[in-house]
């Protein structure tokens, strides 16, 4: 990393505050380049708390841990804000085996939002190939009571990942039509790797038990099924409940001139459980904590108030940030901007502008204050799938970091998402980028962009084709009904 180091200067006491504000970008960048506790924090979160699905005791421990971190930094305003989510789903146990024509154990991971088997379930395996509607139709009535095997291509890109989510609609419709006993979804990652794949993207549970099955076991089952009848036994026990309680952790540094205006930087603290939620998204939770630490330790109070938000319920459909926006509804006019990080520790090459072209210049100006960060490829796209969403559809200018997905995607929601995957060198750069951007948006005399009206948001949603994502993620009806997207 090439940084322009701050020039050494002697500061007269009276002008210290002003000079320190002018020099803030360089001070933040040089701090990020030195030793910081960011990775030590992450290591503690991942190794001593571990995977932390929302509604679990581990997630509650992570909330306490994060609030303590902010308080230990010395930040005065730290709040833990409770919310209620619908349809708890937590993993319990999941066992699978082929019982005929040969016996062997198959590795499975229960799919979030699928029900348990009622004790062990043994049934014939039927291969539905790519699981298009016509593949189900071909087998028709034979599917009733069978365990269905769904094939998957290997996941290489974000488009592949989105396709895996979008396929859920067909799977659930077919399940309701043909009544299979269970579904096995071939893992999109080779070499035995399992991961959590939510089968339903709203608060309704799937009509049948479902699990991801290791790619190699899925292919063996499929080859055997070509030659004759294959039988499989599944025993899956998940924990479900109508509702759960969780909490967001919010820390605040008051603005020195316009404390009523707010710039928020956030990341989600919750994770799935097979790994320890390092890339998704512990590393960025630790980044948000470390940016707060940098502001506090350097004595930097920008013009506007800055809030540091760690949301839970993100993996359940951004439930925590949705609750935050609802809780702070009366303040939304005063939110100048929101910045989210949720793409691991890969290099930040720029930010999604989320349909707000007017943000391009303020973001580029902020990131060009320090040489060598290489984060100036801003993308016009609006993205759905992380905690910017409810701010975006409520008209608030919002940004999501676009990071190199090559370390993020292979471990996404998987057993392998652990501390050792983290790119510590890039993460220091990401921290500098986050701190600089937050500083600039909070300190510039001008707000980066205005809050949009509901009509402007509706236009943005159509212009950016966000509506297609919202339909796939089952958010469209609530948005149209005015239940999501608050004004
Ligand atoms: Zn995430």
Set out the fold topology.
Blueprint (H helix, E strand, L loop, with lengths): L15 H7 L1 H10 L4 H12 L7 H17 L3 E24 L3 E3 L1 E3 L10 E7 L5 H7 L7 E4 L7 H9 L1 H11 L3 E5 L23 E4 L1 H13 L3 E23 L4 E11 L9 H20 L6 E8 L7 H9 L7 E6 L7 E5 L7 H8 L21 H4 L5 E6 L20 H20 L10 H10 L2 H7 L3 H5 L7
Parallel strand pairs: 4-5, 5-6, 6-7, 9-10, 9-11, 11-13
Antiparallel strand pairs: 1-2, 1-8, 3-7, 4-8, 8-10, 12-13
Helix pairs in contact: 2-13, 3-9, 4-9, 9-13, 11-13
The structure holds zinc ion.
Binned strand content: 15-25%
Helix vs. strand class: alpha/beta
Q: Number of helical segments?
A: 16
Shape: elongated
Largest sheet: 13 strands, mixed
Q: How far apart lie the N and C ends?
A: 43 Å
Mean pLDDT over all positions: 94
Distinct ligands: zinc ion
What is the number of beta strands? Answer: 13
Q: Note poorly predicted spans.
A: 1-17
Q: In words, what does this structure look like?
A:
There is one protein chain. With 487 residues, the chain is an alpha/beta fold. 35% of the residues lie in helices and 22% in strands. The protein has helices at residues 16-22, 24-33, 38-49, 57-73, 133-139, 158-166, 168-178, 215-227, 278-297, 319-327, 360-367, 389-392, 424-443, 454-463, 466-472, 476-480; strands at residues 77-100, 104-106, 108-110, 121-127, 147-150, 182-186, 210-213, 231-253, 258-268, 304-311, 335-340, 348-352, 398-403. Strands 1, 2, 3, 4, 5, 6, 7, 8, 9, 10, 11, 12 and 13 form a 13-stranded mixed β-sheet that branches. Helix 2 packs antiparallel against helix 13, helix 3 (38-49) packs across helix 9 and helix 4 (57-73) runs parallel beside helix 9. The radius of gyration is 24 Å and the shape is elongated. 52% of the residues are buried. Residues 1-17 have low confidence and may be disordered. Bound molecules: zinc ion. Zinc ion is lined by residues 268, 280-281, 314, 342.
């Amino acid at each position: 990393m090439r940084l322009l180091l701050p020039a050494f200067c002697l500061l007269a006491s009276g002008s210290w505050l002003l000079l320190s504000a002018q020099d803030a970008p360089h001070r933040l960048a040089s701090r990020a380049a030195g030793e910081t506790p960011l990775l030590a924090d992450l290591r503690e979160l991942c190794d001593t708390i571990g995977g932390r699905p929302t509604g679990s005791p581990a997630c509650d421990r992570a909330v306490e841990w994060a609030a303590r971190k902010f308080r230990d930094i010395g930040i005065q305003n730290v709040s833990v804000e409770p919310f209620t989510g619908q349809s708890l789903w937590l993993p319990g146990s999941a066992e699978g085996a082929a019982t005929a024509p040969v016996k062997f154990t198959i590795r499975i991971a229960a799919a979030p939002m699928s029900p348990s088997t009622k004790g062990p379930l043994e049934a014939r395996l039927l291969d539905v190939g790519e699981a298009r509607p016509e593949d189900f139709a071909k087998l028709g009535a034979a599917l009733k009571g069978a365990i269905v095997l769904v094939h998957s291509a290997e996941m290489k890109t974000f488009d592949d990942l989105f396709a895996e989510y979008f396929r859920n609609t067909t799977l659930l419709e077919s399940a309701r039509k043909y009544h299979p006993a269970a579904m096995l979804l071939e893992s999109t990652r080779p070499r035995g790797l399992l991961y959590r794949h939510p089968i339903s993207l709203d608060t309704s549970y799937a009509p049948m038990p479902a699990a991801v099955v290791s790619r190699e076991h899925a292919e063996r089952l499929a080859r055997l099924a070509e030659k004759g009848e294959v039988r499989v036994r599944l025993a899956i026990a998940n924990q479900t409940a109508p509702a759960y309680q969780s909490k967001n952790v919010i820390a605040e540094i008051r603005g020195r001139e316009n404390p009523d205006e707010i710039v928020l930087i956030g990341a989600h603290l919750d994770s799935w459980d097979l790994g320890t939620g390092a890339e998704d998204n512990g590393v960025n939770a630790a980044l948000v904590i470390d940016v707060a630490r940098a502001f506090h330790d350097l004595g930097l109070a920008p013009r506007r108030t800055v809030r540091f938000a760690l949301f839970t319920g993100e993996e359940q459909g951004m439930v925590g940030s949705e609750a935050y926006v609802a809780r702070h509804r009366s303040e939304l006019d005063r939110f100048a901007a929101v910045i989210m990080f949720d793409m691991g520790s890969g290099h930040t090459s720029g930010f999604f502008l989320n349909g707000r072209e007017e943000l391009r210049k303020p973001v580029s100006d902020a990131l060009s204050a320090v040489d060598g960060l290489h984060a100036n490829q801003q993308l016009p796209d609006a993205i759905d799938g992380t905690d910017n969403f409810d701010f975006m559809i409520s008209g608030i200018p919002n940004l999501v970091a676009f990071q190199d997905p090559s370390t993020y995607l292979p471990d996404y929601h998987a057993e392998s998402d652990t501390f050792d995957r983290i790119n510590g060198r890039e993460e220091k750069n990401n921290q500098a980028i986050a701190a600089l951007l937050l500083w600039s948006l909070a300190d510039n005399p001008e707000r980066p962009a205005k809050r949009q009206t509901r009509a402007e948001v509706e236009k943005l949603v159509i212009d950016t084709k966000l509506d297609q994502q919202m339909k796939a993620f089952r958010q469209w009806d609530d948005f149209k009904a005015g239940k999501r997207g608050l004004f």
